[in-house]
Every structure is written in structure tokens, then in C-alpha cells.
Request: fold
Amino acid sequence: MSLNKKQIQHLKGLAHSLKPVVLLGSNGLTEAVVAEIDYALNHHELIKVKIPTEDREVKGLIVDAICRETGATKVQVIGKTLIIYRQSEEKKIHIPKL
Reply:
């Protein structure tokens, strides 16, 4: 799913007050973590994931892997926090059109 700037801004505003739902541990991105992210996306649609790494390249690879494995869209990465969105069948979050 591709989002335009207006839609991304809307999702950033909604995500501002959210707390991270999933925290990656010292083991990094495991199948269990991907499953937890997938479950959280089904339940909330818009979530924050905390990625505890200083290395930008590693963080970029983790972000790409999370988006690829879960089918989610990256909204924003701020520091160690990733915001992702995936629409569920219930469509809990209304995204504005163009």
C-alpha cells in the first residue's frame, strides 16, 4: 500500500500519542517478534516498534525486513522508533483520500 504525503501526515498525527507496542530485544528480529508485530497490526493497524540499535544500516535492514514480512507500510522512523501501518479488514483507522 502506498501512501501520499497527506495520508502520511494524518497517520503521524495519530501515532504521536501512541506508546511502542513491540520492543525488539537483544536477539534482534526473530520469528516470534515478527508474529507479535503481525498480531499487533491486526489489532491496532497503526503501531510503534522500538528498535534498540545505534547502527543506521542495521536499523534500515530491520525496518525493511519488518515491512516486508508483515506487509506493512513504513510511516516514519524517528530515532529508534519505527511507526508502521497496515489496514485490517475492520478498517479501524480512516485515512483521508487525496
User: Anything to note?
Assistant: The longest strand covers residues 73-78. The helical segments are 5-15, 31-44, 56-70. The chain has a mean pLDDT of 91.
